[in-house]
Amino acid sequence: MQPRLMLALLLVASLTVFAANLVVGTRAHGDDALFETLLSLRASRGLTAYFAGASLAVAGVIAQGLFRNPLASPDVLGTTAASSFVGKLSLLSYEALVVGQSALGVAPELLLPLGCLVGALGGLLLLLALAKRARDGVVLLLAGFLLSSLCLSLGSLVTSLAQESWELGRAVVAFALGSITGAGPRQVALIAPTAVIGTVAALLWSRPLDLLLSGEDEATVLGLDVRRARRWCIAWTALLTAGAVAVGGNLSFVGLVVPHALRAVIGVSHRWLVPAAALAGGSFALACDMLARAVPARTEVPLGVVTGLIGAPLFLVLVLRSRRQVLYG
């Protein structure tokens, strides 16, 4: 399919899904109070889900290009786990931080997003320090795996400690499962800049990412500073994942399934792949949010659970299909 046509279809799909997100579950459209709720709650929540999905999908494109592996995801760098761990830690320390709120000058509802950003920044600095010495991507991949494993273990420890308080334990578990319930204008103001900046940066680095697909040695021969490109790719991936985790927690499979599916349709050129991933990732997360609200249950199903339930089977189908094409042509 032509890339321009694909982008146009994805844009139409994004607008359609966003419009449907405002309407689904609404009965009386003539009520002024309901109309205000649609604009203030549904729109803010929809934008939060859309920007979070777009951020993770673009981060997945960068990670797959960096490691030259269509099965890579933003999680392999460890910044997602680091962001989640410090976010949980900020929830655990919520009362102590609120006491010192006047000294920090931070609103209590922003402690969790800021904690996620601090965690991603810490993981980023560690990876950048290792990237300066790493001769190839394998060392960086192993470092990201170790960082992710460590932060996941520490995050599990925080989750277990939070169970002493029912409300705190519930908040930590909801964050770990991935939820945008209660997202408002502040969450949109936080995720929108990181999503836009990260996507624009990925577009500007589309040429180096294309060169990396041919291998680090070949890219060096073609004049690319591989270590510099590697550091910047890590930075943009960390920025995008930090923003998504800060407002939505762990939204699984978005950064893996969307880029992997698009490569088979739109090709491997990052000039087209990055904007397509942003549109498709946002639409995917927004559609999953509608499904989460449509499930008949006493409590709302977390968005991260829905993305996992849909993303895992879809990813399996994509892998089996690609393998069948390799075997049978």
Brief characterization of the structure:
The protein is mostly helical and 329 residues long. It contains 15 helices and no strands. The protein has one domain (3-328): ABC transporter involved in vitamin B12 uptake, BtuC (Orthogonal Bundle).
Largest sheet: none
What is the CATH topology descriptor?
Answer: ABC transporter involved in vitamin B12 uptake, BtuC
Mean of pLDDT: 83
Rg over CA atoms: 20 Å
Write the element-wise H/E pattern from the N-terminal end onward: HHHHHHHHHHHHHHH
Structure keywords:
329 residues, ABC transporter involved in vitamin B12 uptake, BtuC, mainly alpha, 15 helices
Describe this structure in words.
By secondary structure, the chain is an all-alpha fold. The chain has a single domain, classed as Orthogonal Bundle (ABC transporter involved in vitamin B12 uptake, BtuC). It has helices spanning 3-23, 32-67, 79-92, 94-99, 101-104, 111-133, 137-162, 166-177, 185-204, 206-212, 216-221, 226-248, 254-266, 270-294, 303-328. It starts with a helix and ends with a helix.
